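Office hours follow-up: a student asked to see two folded examples consecutively, so here they are.
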Amino acid sequence: MYWIYQKASMKITRIETHVCHARMRNWIFVKVLTDVPGLWGWGEATLEWHTRAVVGAIEDLEPLLVGEDPTRVEYLWQMMYRQHFWHGNGMVRGTAISGIDTALWDIVGKTHGVPCHKLWGGPVRDYVRLYAHLGGGKMEDFYQTAPADASRFAELAGQAVSEGYTAFKTMAVPETMPLEGLQPVRYAEKCVAAMREAVGDSVDIMVDCHARPSPRMGHLFAHALEPYGLYWLEEPCWPETAEDIAQIQRAVRTPIATGERLVGIHAFRDLLEKRACSVIQPDITHCGGLSEARKIAALADAYRVAIAPHNPQGPVSTAASLEFGFATPGYIICESVHNDVPWRGDICSESFTVEPQGRLVRPGDRPGIGIEIDTKEVAKHPFEQEVPMRTFYKDGSVGDW
């Protein structure tokens, strides 16, 4: 009876943000506290170059939530999205909502004593496969002679395979002006060819265009890389131009992936209605949290489109992405960042286990999203302004990074 009474009377008391500088980005960990001693939830609201804006947005949302029952997750999501007049489909507010929403699901799992994936119907798979991100794609590399650069991509690919990965992603497509000649296309071809030769056909290669190309250049890159059997080609042009992405998808056999910069189910509905991609990539720290990610996944399932969440952030984002994957039928693979900072493991404890061979993640049995953050360790890495990532083309005009 005490447990039932405690659950019925539970209230949110405050929401904290803990900022942790991690080289390329500041992780924003969100802690939703309750009036039940020792019961809180963790979320993540990392948004590079907008840290202070997101922290402020969370502070703006807090008055809507304090005093409310944290287990009414959908009700609170609706309040965060719809109240205060402005809908929460912008990137900053969407990220703030995402961090809080994930923390609420963490609380619900802890309240019932089960991992979140069991709240959502139980596991639909035995493991989730991880893929590595090799990086690459610095501006100064693109207009040099390709052989040395291609060799570097091949070296990184071989290293990923030696670490147990059966799939990896790289930014082998250069920054380009709206229209260029063959040089950037040939550069991308040589880099991808070198990686394919280095790892063979049994390893899946993904290429991330980072939405750098114009639609026409995206077409050229997609056709040039088609012979190499990519697992997917990501963001071949701006995500705002869904019809252009759809035309690229129709023009090649290569699966097209996109969605990391989209917020809310309505943006993904437009992608799916246009048959613009074979893989959608909602980012749980931006798209609206686990609540909205699950709705997006259900919509994608109706179109038989695969799901592979964007996940280059901190450990709470990874834990949430994996819980989502254990319970989501269309989920195929998860992005993994493991070498960004050497102390990543010091700030958190995780429930899931990773099998080194194949980089397969098995679910854990810790309740909620299965992670705990050590705020004392986080405090050792306070906020630092991120390095500006500014890109200019050869003529001095502004480009996409």
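And the second, which I mentioned at the end of office hours:
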Amino acid sequence: MRRIVAGLGALAVIAPALLAPVAAFAGPTCTTEAKDKWMSQDAMKAKVAEMGYQKIKTFKVSGSCYEIYGYTKDNKKAEVYFNPVTGAVVKSEID
């Protein structure tokens, strides 16, 4: 019986360490507003184009964000998260 208890104790120590990397891959929190307050996807796509992003390969809802994969006006790869209410950039990764 001791081995089972010791095994469960070890699991309690290891489990949080295994789950921590999952949180690292989660996207940012862009808004807490309800979706009926969000800009339409068409309006956001227009704003993204006005900001100079082009060749958008992916435009999607990601958690509480609009997320794009495309290119900057300087032709650099971009992954960008936007606040869907204001259109502001919340997080960007430019290569």
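Two things to take away from it. Strands lie at 54-62, 65-71, 77-82, 89-94. The chain has two helices and four strands.
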